[in-house]
UniProtKB/TrEMBL annotation:
This is Carboxymuconolactone decarboxylase-like domain-containing protein. The lineage of its organism: Bacteria, Pseudomonadati, Bacteroidota, Chitinophagia, Chitinophagales. It comes from Chitinophaga varians.
């Protein structure tokens, strides 16, 4: 999900996710990934020490 500038999520990956999760659950997992990615970018940019 974090390399979408290169391409979209492959159909096989999306099909696997929707076979396991409902549409609502896919949305929740997607938002969790977005938030984690955002925090990781903030930490890297601000050079925050881990721990």
């Amino acid at each position: 999900m974090t390399l979408l500038a290169d391409t979209h999520v492959p159909d096989e990956v999306f099909s696997t996710a929707t076979a396991v999760f409902t549409k609502e659950e896919v949305a929740v997992v997607t938002m969790a990934i977005v938030v984690i990615n955002a925090w990781n970018r903030i930490v890297v940019t601000s050079r925050t020490a881990v721990g």
